[in-house]
Amino acid sequence: MLPTIEVNDRVMVNKLAYNWSEPARGDIVVFTDPAQPEVEETIPEAVVRSVLEAVGVRTRGRDDLIKRVVGLPGETIVIRGNHVIVDGVEIEEPYLPPDAVMPDAGPFTVGPEEVFVMGDNRQFSFDSRRFGTIAYDDLIGRAFVTIWPLDNFGGL
After folding, report:
1. How much is the CA Rg of the chain, to the nearest whole Å?
2. What is the helix, strand, coil percentage profile of the chain, to 5?
3. Per-residue pLDDT for 59 more than 60?
4. What is the DSSP string of 52-120?
5. Mind listing the domains of the chain with CATH numbers?
6. Closest Cα partner for 115 from 60, 77, 144?
7. How far apart are CA 104 and CA 20, in angstroms?
C-alpha cells in the first residue's frame, strides 16, 4: 500500500464498519489472505487469542492483507494504458504516486457481495488481479487512521 501506508506502519481498523453499510470505492480494507489455509482452533484457544489480540499482545493466526476497494458488486474492471476503467469509465485515483505503473489486465467482473481490491503500489501489489475478488464475509474491517509511528499519524 505504499506510499499511503509505509512498511511497519500500524493502523486502526473499524471492525464494525461493514456491519451496517457496504464497502465503498476508495475504502482501505483489511481482509483475510485468500491464499492462507483456515486455522483450526478450539473454543478455549479462540478465547485466549481474541483477548490477546484485543490488548495488542498477539496477532491473528492468519495473515491479513490491506488494500483499496476499486470495484464494487456487478462492475467490470479493466486496466488499460495505466488506468483503471470501471464499466467503461476511467476512475480518478489521486492517492496513486505519479509514477505508478499497471500492466494491462482484465476484464474482471465483480460478483454480488464481493469487492475488487488493489494496492496503491500497483506495480508490485499482490491483489485481486492475482487472487480474484474478496467476499464481504472475508472483510475484517476498514482501516481509517495510521497510529504508529507518530510521524505518520493521520487519517487514511
Report:
1. 16
2. 15, 35, 50
3. no
4. HHHTTSS--SS-EEEEEEEE-TT-EEEEETTEEEETTEEPP-TTS-TT-----EEEEE--TTEEEEE-S
5. 10-68+113-155 (2.10.109.10)
6. 77
7. 35
Burial class (CB in 10 A: 0-12, 13-18, 19+), 144: middle
Q: Is 26 exposed, middle or buried (0-12, 13-18, 19+ CB in 10 A)?
A: middle
**Location of C-alpha cell 483503471:** 84
Count of CB atoms situated within 10 Å of the CB of 28: 22
Give the pLDDT confidence score for residue 133 in this predicted structure. 95
* 73: pLDDT strictly greater than 80: yes
